[in-house]
Amino acid sequence: MLGNFQQSTLRIEVKASEESIRDSLLESDRLKQWMWPQNFTSLSGTLNPGNTFISSLGLVEIEHQVEKIEENSLRLLLSKGIDGYHEWHWGDGWLQSRLEGVSILPLNLGQTFSLFRLRQYLSSNNSPNPLS
Predict the structure, then answer these.
(1) For position 107, which CATH number holds?
(2) Residue 117 near residue 32 (C-beta atoms within 8 A)
(3) 86 in Cβ contact with 68 (< 8 Å)
(4) Buried (b) or exposed (e) across 1-20, using 16+ Cβ within 10 A?
(5) Each residue of 21-33: pLDDT tens digit?
(6) Has residue 66 been placed in a domain?
(7) DSSP state of 27
(8) In a domain, 41, yes or no
(9) Which of 25, 45, 102, 131 counts the highest number of beta carbons within 10 A?
(10) Is residue 22 part of a domain?
């Protein structure tokens, strides 16, 4: 893989419950909403360990494999456009993202944009079921 080794950990406050954050990360319909403008293939239902899906932004594709899901965390192994991993940790009112890998992409910039999109999504969807 060509590129630079990069790592970044960001933590933000969000006006959302632990359950709402978890659902926004693990339910594919919600994930697709806040991760716009990325496109997803092979992503449906609720994420489970072993699931694999691809996200793309323009010509760059990133393959995500769900390595593990725990009560308050998610770990994705990344390949293609990023060779590394992405970890999510959350609780009531907070969210943390750790991204590490080799890529030509500016990972910190993309990670920051994603966290702010998720915070915006969570603040505009305070109902228990924002999709209804």
Answers:
(1) 3.30.530.20
(2) no
(3) no
(4) eeeeebebeeeeebebbeeb
(5) 999 999 999 999 9
(6) yes
(7) B
(8) yes
(9) 25
(10) yes
Phi–psi pair at 117, nearest 5 degrees: -65, -40
Asked if residue 130 is part of any domain, the answer here is no
Token look-up 């390949």 returns 79
43-51, Cβ contacts within 8 angstroms, sequence gap of 24 or more: 47/74
Residues 6+ apart with CB under 8 A from 29: 131
CB atoms closer than 10 angstroms to residue 76: 23
Q: What domain range includes position 59? A: 4-124
- CA distance linking residue 92 with residue 20, whole number of Å: 9
Q: What is the pTM of this model?
A: 0.88
- What tokens appear for 106 in the block? 């500016």
Dist CA 82 CA 61 (whole Å): 9
Split into its structural domains, the chain has a count of 1
- CB–CB of 2/104 below 8 Å? yes
